[in-house]
Amino acid sequence: SSSRPRPTTARVRASSLDEIVETYRVHGHRQYGEDVTELEHALQCATFARDAGEADVVVAAALLHDYGHLC
Questions:
Q1: Are the C-beta atoms of 6 and 21 separated by less than 8 Å?
Q2: What are residue 34's phi and psi, to 5 degrees?
Q3: 17-38 CB burial, b ≥16 within 10 A, e <16
Q4: Mean pLDDT, to the nearest integer, of 38-51?
Q5: Which of 42, 44, 56, 66 has CA atoms 20 to 30 A from the CA of 25?
Q6: In degrees rounded to 5, what are phi and psi of residue 67?
Q7: Predicted TM-score of the model (pTM)
Q8: How far apart are CA 30 and CA 40, in angstroms?
Q9: String of DSSP letters for 33-65
């Protein structure tokens, strides 16, 4: 049986990362629900993915999956 290769992360422009960090800084305090902020929720999801041994690209996707709600 053949195994699928794990996805690799691509280079992201520093300005894009700066924009993401700034968006979480400005809006991450918003309540997601259940006494958890948007930022805390994003970090929890990324931590669960990392602890499950997922590839870096999956951890990044878990971190950013609700990013559009902040914009």
A1: no
A2: 50, 45
A3: eeeeeeebeeebeeebeeeebb
A4: 97
A5: 56
A6: -55, -40
A7: 0.74
A8: 10
A9: ETTEEHHHHHHHHHHHHHHTT--HHHHHHHHHT
